[in-house]
């Protein structure tokens, strides 16, 4: 049995990432075999490729109706990449094997905020307050759901459960049935949240939690949706937060203060701070031991944090039993805080608001009291640092392919690949499964890319 697995692993190494994704779709047995290979690889050769290997880079150019056309939403699975375009509200779906455009959808005229890929359908939410359902095969609109009254900023699909969230401060739970030509849904529950939810940035995959941003204090609040209570408050950022991503007990947040903070959202502890971005951080993703971030000046960075995996594996985002709520007030309503401004791609920013001394920044932001580094925390899990002072991490891998004039507004990270989208309607797929032709560290993608608009004028 071990010999057969070793032989199978040798065969898999001759396949492309697109081939492996296709093999995973055959059945549960093949899915398990590929996952076993990935698990082994991420601890050895695949991990090394992420750190210093040369990725295969594919650029997908969506149709741009204006000079600035931001990719405001992204959905990725083993077959396709779906992108929602902010200025036009249209949706484009690309084949990940052929790197060709599969289908276009009319989308939402006023703008699109969120996408999810199902087996047969694509589901979108937009500024028109509607949830729209599209056939992945034909692009035909199969259904329009109007259970919200304002902008739909998040849709999440988990098996036959669809969860949607709107800036009308409601979260809805629907049971669905999908096929290539039909879609049916029934509204099971609609929760009217408090007005603070109008500043929400993240909705849990099954609708268990919602993460809200206070634009006055820059703190994050993790709410139980069904109990309508605050579970924890995350205090640490010194400027507006634009991106939040959650997996298991791990929560990462990115801000205009140019820092990424890693939290255990269940305990409210800040475990690490990642520093190195030149400008604001607009997009985040996490997978096993890696965090990917995108921001101003076309920056994409990948960070390694081995302790992350144990947090991520706690994959239940539902509210723990007997959890105590934390009272608190939110800031003013800011309807558009989770998306990149259409004009942000070409506007320079003043990033001087971040204190130069990182330790002083944490002290001022009330994450830790003075002298807290001398106090052991016996309640911390084994995978968390024993000190209450967050670890400062400055080492990352830059991946500079997007032009410096734009912002990286969305991204997706998985075992093989990183997919990023920007304010020029461009998508980049970075494939780290790609065979390596050199044992030397890759030095590409470390230099900022000039503005193509300016280059054309020369």
Topology summary:
Layout: H1 2-12, H2 17-24, H3 28-41, H4 45-52, E1 56-61, E2 71-76, E3 80-85, E4 91-95, E5 100-105, E6 112-117, E7 121-126, E8 131-135, E9 141-145, E10 152-158, E11 161-166, E12 170-178, E13 183-192, E14 200-203, E15 209-213, E16 220-224, E17 229-234, E18 241-247, E19 250-255, E20 259-264, E21 269-275, E22 281-287, E23 290-295, E24 300-304, H5 308-313, H6 358-364, E25 391-393, E26 397-398, E27 408-413, E28 417-422, E29 426-431, H7 452-457
Parallel strand pairs: 21-25
Antiparallel strand pairs: 1-29, 2-3, 3-4, 4-5, 6-7, 7-8, 8-9, 10-11, 11-12, 12-13, 14-15, 15-16, 16-17, 18-19, 19-20, 20-21, 22-23, 23-24, 24-26, 27-28, 28-29
Structural notes for this entry:
- By secondary structure, the chain is mainly beta.
- The strands form seven sheets. A five-stranded mixed beta sheet has the order 18-19-20-21-25.
- Residues 320-380 have low confidence and may be disordered.
- The chain is built from seven helices and 29 strands.
- It has helices at residues 2-12, 17-24, 28-41, 45-52, 308-313, 358-364, 452-457, and strands at 56-61, 71-76, 80-85, 91-95, 100-105, 112-117, 121-126, 131-135, 141-145, 152-158, 161-166, 170-178, 183-192, 200-203, 209-213, 220-224, 229-234, 241-247, 250-255, 259-264, 269-275, 281-287, 290-295, 300-304, 391-393, 397-398, 408-413, 417-422, 426-431.
- It is globular, with a radius of gyration of 22 Å.
């Amino acid at each position: 049995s071990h010999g057969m697995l070793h032989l199978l692993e040798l065969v898999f190494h001759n396949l492309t990432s697109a081939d492996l994704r296709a093999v995973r779709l055959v059945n549960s047995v093949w899915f398990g075999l590929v996952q076993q290979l990935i698990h082994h690889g991420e601890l050895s050769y695949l991990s090394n490729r992420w750190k210093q290997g040369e990725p295969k880079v594919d650029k997908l150019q969506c149709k741009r109706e204006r000079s600035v056309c931001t990719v405001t939403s992204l959905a990725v699975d083993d077959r396709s990449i779906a992108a929602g375009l902010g200025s036009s509200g249209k949706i484009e779906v690309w084949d990940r094997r052929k790197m060709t455009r599969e289908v276009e959808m009319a989308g939402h005229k006023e703008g699109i905020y969120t996408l999810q890929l199902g087996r047969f359908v694509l589901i979108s939410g937009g500024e028109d307050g509607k949830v729209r359902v599209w056939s992945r095969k034909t692009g035909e609109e199969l259904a329009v759901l109007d259970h919200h009254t304002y902008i739909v900023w998040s849709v999440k699909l988990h098996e036959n459960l669809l969860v949607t969230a709107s800036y009308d401060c409601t979260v809805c739970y629907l049971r669905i049935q999908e096929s290539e030509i039909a879609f049916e849904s029934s509204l099971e529950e609609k929760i009217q949240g408090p007005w603070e939810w109008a500043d929400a940035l993240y909705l849990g995959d099954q609708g268990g939690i919602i993460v809200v941003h206070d634009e006055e204090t820059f703190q994050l609040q993790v709410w139980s949706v069904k109990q309508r209570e605050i579970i924890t408050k995350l205090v640490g950022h010194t400027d507006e937060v634009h991106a939040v991503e959650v997996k298991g007990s791990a929560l990462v947040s990115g801000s205009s203060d140019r820092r990424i903070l890693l939290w255990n959202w269940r305990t409210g502890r800040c475990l690490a701070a990642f520093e190195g971005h030149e400008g604001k951080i607009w997009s985040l993703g996490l997978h096993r031991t890696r965090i990917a971030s995108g921001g101003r000046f076309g920056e994409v960075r990948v960070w390694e944090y081995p302790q992350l995996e144990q947090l991520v594996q706690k994959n239940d985002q539902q509210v723990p039993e007997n959890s105590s709520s934390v009272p608190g007030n939110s800031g003013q309503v800011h309807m558009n805080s989770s998306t990149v401004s259409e004009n942000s791609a070409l506007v320079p920013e003043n990033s001087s608001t971040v204190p130069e001394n990182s330790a002083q920044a944490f002290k001022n932001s009330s994450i830790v009291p003075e002298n807290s580094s001398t106090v052991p925390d016996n309640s911390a899990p084994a995978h968390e640092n024993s000190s209450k002072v967050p670890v400062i991490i400055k080492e990352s891998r830059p991946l500079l392919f997007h032009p410096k004039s734009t912002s990286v507004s969305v991204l997706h990270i998985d075992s093989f690949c990183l997919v990023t989208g920007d304010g020029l309607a461009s998508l980049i797929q970075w494939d780290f499964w790609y065979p390596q032709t050199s044992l030397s560290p890759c030095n590409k993608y470390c230099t900022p890319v000039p503005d193509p608009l300016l280059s054309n004028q020369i």
